[in-house]
Amino acid sequence: MTIERRTVVRAVLVFVVAALAVTLFSAMTAQGATVSDSAVSSDISMTTTTVDIDPPDDAASEPAPTSYSGSNRFLQSIVNGLVFGLLLALASVGLSLIYGTTGLSNFAHGEQVSFGAVLTYFFATQQPVSLPMIPVSFVIGMPLVPAALLAIAVAGALGWVQDRYLWSRLRKRRVGLVQQMIVSIGLSLAILNFIQWWVGGRRLRLTPDIDPRYQLGPVYLGEQTLISTGIAIACLLGVGFFLTQTRRGRATRAVSDNPSLAAASGIKVDSIVRLVWVMAASLAAVGGILLALYENGTAFDAGARLLLLMFAAVTLGGLGHPFGALVGSMVIGLVTEVSTVWLAPDLKYAVALGILILVLLVRPQGILGRAERVG
Amino acid sequence: MTKDDVILRADNLIAGYLPGVNILNGCSMEVKKGELIGIIGPNGAGKSTFLKSLFGLVNIREGEVTLNGANITNLRADELVRHGIGFVPQTDNVFPSLTIEENLEMGAYQAHASFKKRLAVIGDLFPVLIDRRHQRAGSLSGGERQMVAMARALMMDPQVLLLDEPSAGLSPDRQDETFVRTRTINRTGVTVIMVEQNARRCLQICDRGYVLDQGTTAYTATGKELLKDPKVIELYLGTLGA
Ligand SMILES: Nc1ncnc2c1ncn2[C@@H]1O[C@H](COP(=O)(O)OP(=O)(O)OP(=O)(O)O)[C@@H](O)[C@H]1O
Ligand SMILES: [Mg+2]
């Protein structure tokens, strides 16, 4: 890959600007804290009443309690793994689509996940909320479903805006992929800090409802979890249907295969990529919302903590392969959850990385990736 | 030649990939409706670059391309497809993870209403492709891929077809097949501009040839004249079997 000096300089500039923006935001957060302090403290006192049904904060990354008496821990972990894998797939399928069609490893994808969940909290919570920079707090308190739908729409719109005003311009100027990736890292930090500044560092619950649990044979499943799983499966089937059964979907796969040949066939590559960005951002938001329900809460860094697993899943399944994200996510979800039967949950990421390396040693192109034909 | 039977004209094109480096320095071409044009020249002469610049994939810095008198310089590839130009690149000319039928569907992306009708027409030219339409293009041989690529470019029923080395990498009888098929396509009324390494075979079937060297169209003549031209023989045809 040839790296042009001018593009490097441009990327570094963008990065510096992004870093400056982040620093500025953080500095303003420190000042803004006094304004929103009252809101935060009232929020905390409200949530303490429900805190005993919450999982403790440090175990929050662990999706569901695995130690019910009378349940089979191993089977339970498999079920948890499948559910987590599906939700992870939903969050990471967009990462894979964007990589496939543009070649960009989008490090800001995790923030799309957080953004969806945080926006839903913003629309749905009964706590007073406020907009950044505006020192007025108010309660929106929409019901969960419309709040989630609105959040998904806003997140999708953000995907559109990002591609329209940033990525499409970088592509048009033929900025290299490494440089674009660096920009996405900067953007990721900027959005992360923005969300933290906006909603603070505490844990946010999308709904105060207590999730009723059902026992199905030897495993327990929450009602919200069941619904989330259903929604996730429906969304993933929808993506599959789009990619194989619709003209635009097939064009998306064509662009993934070979963008310049797609253009030579008369496909408007830019509008396909725009569509992919909107889809990716919306699906990430859906994933973020469902994960927040599954994990009984979200936080400003929920997506950032997921990013590594998403990259592992996408790479494992076969980079850029439309269904690679699904397969990779199921594997990662299962392996990491089942490993918690024997290993400390803190080792999840290590396990994910281990399985990734193992699979890549055996199949360098990933599980579904096709070995490039020679000649 | 009267003005209105010229379908495509390139006028002193200057183009290149990297800033400040021109690969084409003054390429001109005039193609009449229904002609079969061959472009020959040594490796690296800029033949592929010339075709790509006609098709909007390489930025033209100076000069003008017109199609039926209308300026089409630097239009986007998908707009040129709408104007009736088809292009088969030299390499990577199929979508490997799509089936043959999906490849052809992409070729007709802008005219999906007439996809079925065109598929029938193309099926007459390439019956093998229809028989194997559910096979992934990535699993085809080089010759079969070349067929898919050509069929894909014909799906929009283009007025002008640009072919970049359609016979490259094929066995001699498959090469013959390709030339014959190109001639057949041309006879149906499609103007064809083809770049070829196999200069002798190309010039035998061409109405007219252009010799491209170091980014300029050095000269043009009918295929038969070029085949007898001592300089062309020396440079591109070799003395064997001349
Ligand atoms: N994508 C590219 N970026 C930069 N330079 C390029 C690119 N493609 C081709 N070139 C340069 O342009 C010049 C002409 O290349 P081109 O592919 O047009 O030659 P050609 O006549 O088609 O050769 P061949 O017979 O080998 O196909 C070469 O010197 C090559 O290095
Ligand atoms: Mg070439």
Explain the overall architecture.
The complex is a heterodimer of chains A (375) and B (242). By secondary structure, chain A is mainly α. Helix content of chain A is 69%, strand content 3%. Chain A has helices at 5-48, 73-102, 109-124, 144-172, 177-199, 223-245, 247-257, 259-264, 269-294, 302-317, 324-342, 348-362, and strands at 129-130, 137-138, 213-216, 219-222. A two-stranded antiparallel sheet of chain A has the order 1-2. Chain A has a two-stranded antiparallel ribbon with strand order 3-4. The relative contact order of chain A is 0.17. Chain B has 242 residues and is of the alpha/beta class. Chain B has helices at 47-54, 77-83, 100-107, 115-125, 127-131, 142-154, 172-187, 199-205, 223-228, 230-237, and strands at 6-15, 24-32, 36-40, 60-67, 70-71, 85-88, 160-164, 191-195, 208-213, 216-222. Chain B is globular. The A-B interface holds A 247, 250-251, 253-254, 256-258, 260-269, 370, 373, 375 and B 55, 57, 76-78, 81-82, 87, 89, 92-98, 102, 105-107, 109-110, 112, 138, 142, 152-153, 156, 169. The site of magnesium ion has 4 residues of chain B, from helix 1. Residues 47-48, 90, 164 of chain B line the site of magnesium ion.
Question: What would you say about this model in short?
Answer:
The complex is a heterodimer of chains A (375) and B (242). In chain A, 69% of the residues lie in helices and 3% in strands.
Provide tags for this entry:
heterodimer; A: mainly alpha; ABC transporter involved in vitamin B12 uptake, BtuC; 12 helices; B: 242 residues; alpha/beta; Rossmann fold; six-stranded mixed sheet; four-stranded antiparallel sheet; globular; binds adenosine-5'-triphosphate; binds magnesium ion
